[in-house]
Design brief:
The protein is of the alpha+beta class. The chain is 20% helix and 32% strand. The longest helix is centred in the N-terminal third of the chain and has 55 residues.
Length: 324
């Protein structure tokens, strides 16, 4: 005969069921937390590697001013916030410095919401792709560089730097047509306090880049969570193309007093998680040793952080010195 179950048996069964369900929920919660931690760490690592590769690629182009030899050229240190680029001349051959560094105390008015105690870096070169002057649209205010390769051409000036396509009259190597031009690239890397700034924005520190496009400075966010950015500059003192002294700013005298003598660079930066974590043992105050910069302390504010360092050789400035 069926007797059913007693109230005690029912209560014991419900209790055991609750224990099993609670254990499963606890396992799922831990798995979800670990998954979030893994995703958070993956985003930090991805952003750090992206920034390191970004600097590496752009710095290897710094000082590329076309096929014409820059041996013996003069260099200037123009204002990177100027809307009309300067520092180019054909007689004598003159270029803007391939890189220029700005420390935390240096003011650059074109860097909106710049984060305190961070550096900014200016990189200059010409574009990889050549452009037919006939295809340049009028009124775009984009500056281009043209060189003369024709032996019968008038080499005064040896180059033309202009935004007007009618100025590009120098010939190619065959002396049969107008030579191609290359676009001028001038950009500033810096860290801002926010990605989307202004009303309704955020407070996520972000690596940004300011590009000179025509006669306008255009700011582009590149990587969120970049909290600290510092640089060391390798100066070539004896002219052999190798860095002899790493400094965080220009020296007072001699070769270390000009940005044109920088042949290598060390970039140090700290990435921060985009959201806070709950576990106190994961997000805590840390001290990071950033090469010659020294120790940088970060607060216990619930965010995780990772430090990165990347050493880059400036191929174009250093190769010219090695060949001399």
């Amino acid at each position: 005969a069926q007797r059913g179950m007693t109230l005690i048996e029912l209560m014991v069964g419900l209790t055991l069921g609750l224990i099993v369900v609670s254990s499963l929920l606890l396992v799922l919660a831990h798995a979800s937390t670990r998954g979030q931690d893994l995703q958070r760490a993956s985003i930090q690592i991805e952003n750090g590697r992206y920034v390191a590769e970004l600097f590496r690629e752009d710095l290897r182009m710094a000082g590329f001013y076309g096929e014409t030899s820059v041996a013996g050229a003069l260099y200037t240190q123009p204002d990177p916030c100027a809307l009309v680029p300067v520092g180019w001349n054909g007689a004598p051959l003159t270029f803007p410095a391939p890189v220029q560094g700005y420390g935390a105390a240096d003011v650059l008015p074109c860097l909106a919401n710049r984060r305190a105690n961070t550096d900014a870096l200016v990189i200059r070169h010409v574009g990889v792709d050549v452009v037919d002057p006939a295809t340049i649209a009028g009124g775009n205010n984009q500056f281009y560089v043209q060189y003369s390769y024709c032996v019968s051409d008038v080499f005064s000036p040896r180059l033309v730097f202009s935004a007007n396509r009618s100025d590009f009259t120098l010939k190619n190597r065959a002396c049969s047509a107008v030579n191609n031009v290359r676009s001028y690239v001038s950009r500033i890397y810096y860290v801002a306090d926010c990605n989307r700034c202004g009303a309704g924005g955020d407070t996520t520190p972000t690596l940004k880049r300011v590009d000179l496009v025509g006669n306008t400075l255009v700011t582009t966010p590149l990587a969120e969570g970049i909290e600290m950015l510092r640089f060391e500059y390798g100066f070539d003192v004896d002219g052999d193309g190798s860095p002899d002294s790493y400094l965080t700013a220009l020296g007072a005298l001699g070769p270390t007093s000009a940005w044109s003598n920088v042949v290598a660079l060390k970039a140090h930066f700290i990435t921060r998680s985009l959201d806070k974590v709950i576990a106190d043992n994961i997000a805590s105050a840390q001290d990071f040793q950033l090469g010659g910069i020294g120790a940088v302390s970060t607060p216990n504010d619930g965010y995780t952080r990772k430090a990165y360092s990347s050493a880059v050789r400036l191929v174009n400035p250093s190769a010219v010195r090695e060949a001399q």
